[in-house]
Amino acid sequence: MNTKPAILGGPKVREMAFPPRVTMGSQEIEEVSKVIDSEVLSAFLGGPGKFFKGGKYVKMFEDKWAEMYGFKHAISVNSWTNGLIVGIGAVGIQPGDEVICSPYTMSASATCAFFYGGIPVFADIDPHTYSLDPKSIEEKITPRTKAIVVVHLFGGCADMDPIMEIARKHNIKVIEDAAQSPGVKYKGRPVGAIGDIGGFSLNFHKHIHTGEGGMLVTNDDELAMRARLIRNHGENSIEAYGIKNISNVIGANHRLTELQAAVGIHQLDKLENYLEIRKRLALHLADRLDTLKGIDAKQNIENGDHAFYVFPVKYDAQEVGLSRSLFLKAVHAEFPKPDGFEATVLTEGYVAPLYYNEVYQQQIAIGDKGFPFSTNPDVTYDYSKGICPVTEDMHHKTFLGIPVVREPLTIQDMDEIFEAFKKVIENSEAIKNAFPEENLSEEVFVPLKAANESNIT
Ligand SMILES: *Cc1c(COP(=O)(O)O)cnc(C)c1O
Q: pLDDT for 82-108, tens place per residue?
């Protein structure tokens, strides 16, 4: 094999683009056709009665999900972003309440708090789980803390036992953002309803999808009722359903259509198989990559499964002798130019720490007078660089993501990813010498692609 790196003019490890995912099949098509023939593309009505909980397919989809994973309630929503907003409303967040959030996640995991006047307060992540570090959570708790949004990032799971212990001790609600971890169990318990309420995303990029959509889950009857009210114009149903706690139940329209539910029913049948494939590929890749100097591919699997939405790697620029961005460029050169959403073999960092966003920097979210940050007049909120050092280290220096550890790729494809890493690392000296100006010291700030340019959402 010619081992000259492609970035220095050698042959690529791979000439052909990675094949795209194909998740939709004849069953989805047939089921959707039935819905179209029925004319009932959505059966929801915005008031009490038979159609308050939606139509036939929505109910079938929800029941199927609940039964498969042992959730008492599964409540579909038209996006998981809206599911998070529903969750924040259901647990009773009020203006001025603080909600502890992760800064290393999709933006909605924190902005959901704003919709009820809650203030996101960022705790740092644990470098092994990439999810909230229980110790950091504890440091951020104040008398105003009313909820924690725990994100199970990249398909792994947060360390829920200590998080739940802290939450119960301080009487704080826990919302699990398991968008990237459908079907994952933590110590045998399905993520999503280990806390009070949680759920999954069904957007196009996720393991299974309905275009847009989400599934909220909870084992708590009252939270389920409140979530259903917020999902569907709850103000109209207060009297008929004898709702006592009417705070936050003014509703919106967060309803999934029958069309999407018809697709979702068959997508759900495929989930376990997808998870198995991802796990098999990932464990193989982890074993191989972990043998390379400067690459830490150990995975967060001691406490349960991993859905490998993204395969996470930690990179040590000092050990490899290449800046992370030059390493990325050299690995990319070993593959054809990414074409479409799904073909990027490697991403540098994930998203910028959420508090870098102008919303937090300027503290302007709802209206232009500083609400909700200004709600507690004696309290000032700090979103300056440095508040979450582990997250910042991941973003600026350490993290590499491989988003293609999924069907229909094969073990052989994983070996090619390994070969590309190996070739670049073994030739780091020559690459460095060829691109001296690009091998900046890691102290120099390297501007990263904005979150919305990366193909991970
Ligand atoms: C995808 C995702 C969301 C948002 O889900 P949508 O269905 O796209 O609204 C929220 N949190 C995380 C961690 C996600 O990955």
A: 999 999 999 999 999 999 999 999 999
Q: Radius of gyration of the chain from Cα atoms?
A: 23
Distance CA 45, CA 94 (A): 28
Q: Band of the pLDDT at 342, cuts 50, 70, 90?
A: low
Mean pLDDT computed over 178-186: 98
Q: Is the pTM of this model over 0.90?
A: yes
Q: How far is residue 290 from each of residues 120, 169, 410, measured CA to CA in Å?
A: 36, 39, 19
Question: Starting at the edge strand that comes first in sequence, how are the strands of the sheet with 98-101 ordered?
Answer: 73-77, 214-218, 197-201, 173-177, 145-151, 98-101, 119-122
For a mutational test of ligand 1's pocket, the pick from 86, 177, 267, 456, i.e. the residue with the most ligand atoms closer than 8 A to its C-beta, is 177
| Four-CA torsion 336, 339, 344, 345, nearest 10 degrees | -30
The predicted structure's pLDDT at residue 437:
78
Question: How far apart are the CA of 116 and the centre of ligand 1, in A?
Answer: 19
What atom in ligand 1 is closest to the CA of residue 153? Answer: 13
What pLDDT was estimated at residue 166?
A: 98
Q: How far apart are CA 399 and CA 395, in angstroms?
A: 6
Which protein residues touch ligand 1 with a CB less than 6 Å away?
79-81, 105-106, 108-109, 151, 177, 179-180, 201, 203, 214, 457
